[in-house]
Amino acid sequence: MAGGLVGALVMVYVAPGLVAGRLGWNRELPRFQLPEPAPVTRAVSDHPVVRVADTVGPAVVGIVNRAVVGVDFRGRQVLETRTGSGLIISSNGYIVTNHHVIQGASQITVILADGSSHLAGIVGSDPPVDLAVIKIPVDRVPFATFGNSDALRVGEPAIAIGNPLGMEFRHSVTAGVISGVDRILRVGEEFIRLVQTDAVINPGNSGGPLANGAGEVIGINTLKIDLPRVEGMGFAIPSNTVRRIVEDLIADGRVRRPWLGVQILDRATIQRYRLEVSVQFDRGVYVDAVRPGSPAARGGLAAGDIIVQIGKYRVDDIGSLQVAVREHRVGEIVSIQVIRAGRPVTIAVTLGELPAS
Fold it and tell me: Would you state the pLDDT for residue 117?
């Protein structure tokens, strides 16, 4: 039986050649070739993601941070190499990135899109909003331009460019949409206003740009929610916030933080700690105390007022008040809407600078 099976297999293998010979198919056949690829159509080359990659990509850099993370038992510094992304914002080499990308740096190396590398110096850093500016010694490099983040609409295209997981995957491009605007999240001890996107943001993308379909940078990628049942929740610092902080850092090396000078309670805090306040309210925040001599005191805010809006920003809790104040500049006159004794009142306050202590 075994021999029969083997013989049958041999005949099946040989038979096609025998048949081909009888039919005259043993002459040389022409070489098989696949059709040439179709030319790239205008529709493909004009796709927003392709356009953004071409426009913004050359201004995206890799950042390698040799960071001091501790001291060993002999008193020697322990160094760790960290990587992230950055964005060139001027032709003479100013670069914006996240504070956490360059934190603790003993040496910062910037890798440009053309593969060249340069040592960078720190111009200034703002930990509360997680932004920093560094500079490389160049005269002429490609740079990106900012768009107006206040004009963002949910659903419009969002394209992220950066270096996820290090330089091996540098200049990776991911695309999605703007999932939400005016998201206020607590990061450490501070509240910050962020733009939400479902464009994939991975470790290493921090400090890279989030762009709209016109190739304008509308945010700097900073974090993502990394939980087992959460997908596609990345966040970027809005470009209008970035512009304001970058201008301060380049001019002064620090950010002058605006200050109102009130102690407030929101509804969640009152309910959590079962606090008693002089009035009941269903929106805004309760002014528990006003610091003597503060901008709030000089402007006429009083304990018992309910702050419902600062400038164009609605106030509903401690985070939204903190962010609303930060959206303005020191010395700026802002209109504050309050409820006082059940009636709406508008107060003009000139913001001061947050004291160091």
Answer: 95
pLDDT in tens, 159-209: 999 998 888 888 999 999 999 999 999 877 789 999 999 999 988 899 999
Concerning whether 118 is annotated as a catalytic residue, the answer is no
Superfamily of domain 258-353: PDZ domain (2.30.42.10)
**Tokens 């038992």 sit on residue:** 73
The 10 Å CB-count burial string (b at 16+, else e) for 124-150 is: bbbbbbbbbbbbbeeeebebbebbebe
Active site annotation includes 320 = no
Express each pLDDT in 283-322 by its tens digit: 999 999 999 999 999 999 999 999 999 999 999 999 999 9
So what CATH class is 54-135?
A: mainly beta
Catalytic residue among 99, 100, 149, 172: 100
| DSSP for 221-234, written as a single string | EEEE---TT--S-E
Contacts of 83 (CB under 8 A, 6+ apart): 62, 63, 64, 65, 163, 166, 167, 204
Catalytic residue among 99, 125, 130, 248: 130
86 touches 65 (CB < 8 A)? no
Is residue 206 part of the annotated active site? The answer reads: yes
Q: What is the CATH T-level fold of the domain 149-252, as seen in this structure?
A: Thrombin, subunit H (2.40.10)
Output the pLDDT for position 316.
94
pLDDT band at 214 (very low <50, low <70, confident <90, very high): very high
Cα–Cα distance for residue pair 320/326, rounded to 1 Å: 10
What is the residue extent of each domain of the chain? 54-135, 149-252, 258-353
Domains 149-252 and 258-353 equal at CATH topology level: no
- Tell me what pLDDT residue 43 has: 59
- Say what the pTM is: 0.83
Q: Please report which helix (H) or strand (E) contains residue 94, including its range.
A: strand 94-97
